Amino acid sequence: MVGLTSAAGVVGFLSEPDPELQIFALRKLNEEIDSLWTEVAGSVGEIEALYEDESFPERELAALVAAKVYYNLQEYTESMNFALGAGKLFDLGHEGEFEDTIISKCVDTYIALSAMHNPSAAASTSNQPLPQLTTAFPSVANGATSTSAGLTSPTTPFSQSTLPSKSLLSRQDSTTAFDPSLPGGGNAGFEGIQSTPPVLQRDIQKQLHSIIEQLFERCFREGRYRQVVGIAVEARNLDVLRRVILRATEDEKKRKHGEKSVGQTDELMEYILDICMGVVQERGLRNEILKLILDLLRGIPSPDYFSIAKCIVYLDEHTMASEILGHLVKKGDPKSLAVAYQIAFDLYDNSTQEFLKKVREELPKAPEPPTTHGADTAEHMDVADGEHSQETEQLLSELNDSAGAPASSIYDSPKKSEQLSPEIEKAFDSIRDILRGTKSIELDLEFLYRNNHTDMNILNKIKDSLEARNSIFHTAVTLANAFMHAGTTNDKFFRDNLEWLGKAVNWSKFTATAALGVIHRGNLGQGQKLLEPYLPKEQIAGTNTGSAYSQGGSLYALGLIYANHETLALELIREHFKKATEEVVQHGGALGLGVAGMATGDESIYEDLKAVLWTDSALNGEAVGIAMGLIMLGTGNVKALEGMIQYAHDTSHEKIVRGLALGMALIMYGRQEAADVMINGLLDDPDPILRYGGIQTLALAYCGTGSNKAVRKLLHVAVSDVSDDVRRIAVMSLGFILFRKPNSVPRMVELLSESYNPHVRYGAAMALGISCAGTGLDEAIDLLEPMIKDPTDFVRQGALISLSMIMVQQNEAMNPKVGTIRKTLQKAIGDRHEDAMTKFGSAISLGIIDAGGRNCTISLQTQTGNLNMAGIVGMAVFTQYWYWFPLTHFLSLSFTPTAVIGVDQDLEVPSFKFHSATRPSLFDYPPEQETKTEDAPEKVKTAVLSTTAQAKRRAQKKEKQQRRESMDIDQTPATPKTSNIGDKMDTDEPSKAEEEKKDGEKDEPEKKEGEEEKETAALPEGLKKRMEKEKVGYDLENMSRVLPAQLRFISFPEGGRYEPVKKPTGGVILLTDNKTSEPKTLMELKARKVVKAAAAPETLQDRVNAAHTQRDAAAVAAGGAAAAVGVLNAVDEDPEGAEEAEVPREFEYHSDGGEEE
To answer: Which Pfam families does the entry mention (predicted)?
Structure first.
C-alpha cells in the first residue's frame, strides 16, 4: 500500500467532531509520522487537546503521536512525558531510535528523581568530620561567615583573617561543577537545568516507575545485571542495588544445580567493588555501598572473604577483621587456615600500622602467663626461622611479646575463659607475625636478593662520567646506586669505590649514608647492626665521634630500612633524636622517625617532634614538619593541624613553612571531602608556600579518586596563580588524582606541556610520570620525547625522570622505544655541554628505570587495587627533591617488587613451577649494556696524537685492515663489519662488544641522527624474528619475576600438588597442598645465609677502619656498609680543610714570590 505523501487531509480530520474520524487520523499519522511530522507539528496542540480530553477513547494513541512529534522537534522532555502517558502503546520491546531515546530520557529522569529523594548517603557519612575541621583555623577564621570568601581566585588571595567556613561541597561555586553526588545527576547549578524535574509537574511518576521496572526485569531475564547496578549507583538507590545482587544470586542458584564454578554473582560483586573504588567519587555514598556489600557477603553461607577484606580495609572495620580471622582459624581445616593467612597478607599490604595494631590486639589469645606465651613464640620462631641469626630471633621474639602484650578489653574476658589448642594458638601467632609485616618483608627481601639483575656497567659509567668533587654529581651517583640496588642488600658498589666515596662532604655524605637504608630496606634482622657504626655516639672528651652528617644520615637510613614497619627500631631512632643536639642529626632523626612511624598516630612522638620545631631552626624545621605529617598520616588530627597552621603563620623561615605545608597535606591523606575546609583555607592564603601546601593537600586528600571537582580546581590554579611554584605543583598533582586512569592524563596535559611557562611544562612532565608509571604508555612517551630537548634545563630533567618512571621494567618486546630512551639517558650524562641539572636527572633516571635490580615497578596502588599508602606518600615527598635532594630517597617507598611468591600453610616457601602462556622474551629482563669502554679509546686518540703521528697511524691502519679483510672474508663471508676488525688488533682483548664499539666510533661522523634511528628501528624486527622462533608457553619457578601485565597469562597446573587460594594477583600467594602425605621440597632462602655469613670481609673492614679510624674496628657487618664506615664517618672539616688550605697557600706563595722578584 502506498504511504501518504501529504498530511494536510488527515490533519483536517483532527478538528472533526466525530471521534471515529479523529481516531482514524491519529492511526494514520502514527504510521507515517517520521516522514510527515513537519506538517503535523503545527497541529500538535489539537493532538494534546485530544490527550487531555478524558472522554476521548484513544487518549493513549494521541499521547503517542504527540510524543513522536516532540521527539522529531528534539523536545525530548515533552516527548518523554507524552510517551509515558501513552501507557501500553509505548512498546519497550520495539527497537528504534524513538524508543531508545525515550528510554534513555526516562532513565536520566529516574536517576535525578531518586537522587533527590535519597540524599541521606551524602549527608550522613561524608560530612561527619566537617564540623570538627571548621575549628582547624580558630585563630584566623574570624568573620569568615560568608561564602564569598571562597569564591576568590588564588591570584587575589585573602588575608589570614578571611578563611572560608564552609566545605567545597556546600559552596556556590562547587555546584557549578559536575558532581554525581548532587541531585539531578550533577547538573544542578547549570543554566537551563531545572532543579525539580518536569515529570513531577505532570504527576506521571507511576508510569515512569513502571517503565523502569520493565527495564529492570528485561535486564534480569537477559542477565545484564551490570546495567541495573549502574543505574542504582547513579540514582543512589541502595534498595535497587540490594535487589539486583539478591536476584543475581537466586538466578545463579537455579542455573548451577550444585555445580562448583566461578558464578556470575562473584563477578558482579567484583564489578560493584570496582565501581565503588574507581567511579564513585563521594566518600559517603561509597561507604554506604560498601556496608551494603559487606552485609550481603556476610549473609552468604560460603562468602568471598577476599571481597569482604577489601570492604573492611576501606571502612576501617578492624574489629570485623579480627572476627573474620578468628572465625576462619577456628574452622580448623587447611583451606580456611590458608584463606586466613592470605587475608592477613592482604591486610598488611593495604592497611595502616594503626589498623594492623588494633587487629593484632583484638585477635584471640591464650590465657597462659606472658612469659609462657613469649617462650612459645620464641620456640615457634626458632622452628620457622632456623637459619636466622641469633639477633634476628631475639628481635622477632621481642616483637611478638611487645605486640601481644596489650590485649583489647573487648576480648580479654571471653578469651581468658576459652582454652585454645596449640595448633590454633600457633595459627594466631603466625597471623600476628604476618600482620606485623615480618613475613612479607622477609619474602620480598629474598626475592630481590636472588633475582638481582643490576647492570653494574651502567652504574660505573655514571660514576666515571660525573665529577665526584661536584656535590650534585656525587649525590646523583649515590641516588642511582641506591635505586638500582633498592632492597637487594647489595652494597658492593660502595666497597669497590671507597676513593670516590671519600669525596662526599657534608650533605653528600648524609645522602650517601642514607642510601644504605634504601639498599638494605626490609633487612629487619641485620638493619640495626649494619648501621651501628654510623649511629650517633655519646660525646666523650678527647674522642672523635664521627661526622654529624653520617650520623644524621644513619638515622634516616634506619627509618628507611624499617619503613612503615613499627618495631623496636622506632624507639631507637626516637631515643637518638631526643638526645641529639646537632641540627643535622636532628634532621636525619626526624626523617627516620617519620618513615618508620608512618601512620601510627603516636601522640608522644608527635610531641617530641613539635618540641624541636619550636626551636625555630630552619635546618631541622623542614624535616620535622614532614615527619609530623608522616606520624599523623591520614588521621585528620584537628589538634595537630591547628598547631601546624598557626606556627606556619608565625615563623619567618620558608623551609619550615614548606615542611609544615607538606606535613598538613599528609595528615589529610585520603580524607576527600573532609579536607575541603583545609584546602580552601590554604588556597586563599597570601603566602605562596601555603598555597603550594593547599594544592598538595588537595592531591593527597583526593588521590586516586579521579574526582572531577579536584581536577577542575587544579586546572584553574594551574593557569591563574601568580606563583610559578604553585602552578607547577598544581599541574603535577593531576598525576596523583588520576593515576587510576592513566590514559586520560596525556590528553589533559597535552596543551600544558606546550605552555610558555617552563614550570608548567615541568609539572606536565611529572604528572605524566606519576600517573603512567610502569605502564609504558605510548601517548605519554610521545608528549615527553620533545620535552627532552626543551630549552630549560629543569624541564629536560623532569622529562627524563618521567620517562624512566613510565619505562620501568619495560623491554623492547613490550615497548620498542625503551632502547632509544636508555641511550638518551646515557648520552645526557656523557655530554660535556649538558647542564648539571639535566645530568642529575639522567643519573636518577638510570637508577629508576632499573629499580631494585630490575625487579621493582613504581605502583601507587596495591596488587589488590587499593591505594598504596607508602607508595603515594613516597612519591609525594620525592617530588620535593626540587628543594632538598635528600628527600629523593623517599621514591624507594613506591618501589613494588613484581613477583609471585607461593607460600604453603606452614608459611614455608615450597619449590614448584607455574605456567606462563607467553613467549619467554616478551617479559624477559632487558639485556645488559656494555658501556664501560665506550668513551676511553676515543678520548685517547683525539687528545695525545699529533698530526704527523695521526697520518702514520692511518697508514698503518689501512694496511692492517686490508690484511684482516682478506683473511676474515674467507672465514666469515656473511659478516658485514669485518673491514673494521683490524682496529682491534692493537689490544689483546678481542670481544664482540668492543668490535661493535669500534665500528660505531669509526662510523659515528657519518651516521648522525638518521642512521641511529634506522638502527633502533631495526632492533624490534630482529627481536620479532627471534620471538617467532620461540615456543609459546614456559614454566617459571616459585619466587620468579612476574610483571603486572603478565599476571593474566599465569596459571597453575591442573591436578598439581599446589593450588592457590585465590586468583594470582602478584605478591604473596597462599597455596593449598593437595598431597600432604608426600615429602615437600623447600626453597633455600639465600638472603638469610648471606646476611648470617657477613663476617667474611672482616679483614677488609679491619684494614679500612685501621686506615681511617679505630673506633669502628669492632663493627661486624656486611660488605659495603662495613667498608664505608671509615670513609663516611670521617669528619669533613679535617681532610677537606687541609686540601683547601694547601692549594691556596702554594698559589699565594708563588704569586708573592713573583711579585717580590
So the answer is: HEAT_2, PC_rep, RPN2_C, RPN2_N
- pLDDT for 27: 82
pTM of the entire predicted model: 0.76
273 grid coordinates: 567493588
Angle at 41 between CA 35 and CA 44, to 5 degrees: 125
Q: Which three cell numbers stand for residue 241?
A: 542495588
Q: SS3 for 128?
A: coil
C-alpha cell at 568: 623496636
* 991 three-class SS: coil
Say if residues 535 and 516 touch (Cβ distance below 8 Å): no
CA-nearest of 467, 376, 464 to 424 is: 376
Grid coordinates representing 266 are 562473584
Phi then psi for residue 1076, to 5 deg, are -65, -25
Burial bucket for residue 9 (CB in 10 Å: 0-12, 13-18, 19+): exposed
Pairwise CA distance, residues 771 & 858, whole Å: 10
Q: Which of 118-132, 235-249, 494-508, 790-804 has the lowest mean pLDDT?
A: 118-132
Extract the C-alpha cell encoding 126: 561524608
- The whole-angstrom separation of Cα 1126 and Cα 1128 is 6
Q: Which of 781, 718, 782 is nearest to 752 (CA)?
A: 718
C-alpha cell at 63: 499521547
Report d(CA 129, CA 1072) in Å as an integer: 44
Q: How far is CA 129 from CA 123, 149, 284, 453, 676, in A?
A: 11, 21, 11, 48, 11
- Contact, 660 vs 647, CB < 8 A? yes
Alpha helices for 671-723 (secondary structure H): 676-683, 688-701, 708-720
Q: What is the DSSP letter of 1060?
A: E
- Alpha-carbon gap, residue 302 to 293, rounded angstroms: 15
Q: Taking Cα atoms as reference points, which of 714, 779, 715 lies closest to residue 741?
A: 779
375 pLDDT exceeds 60?
Answer: no
**Category of 909 on φ-ψ map: left (φ > 0), alpha (ψ -120 to 50) or beta:** beta
Contact 763, 729 (CB under 8 A): yes
Q: What is the pLDDT of residue 518?
A: 92
Rounded distance between C-alpha atoms, residue 991 and residue 983, angstroms:
12
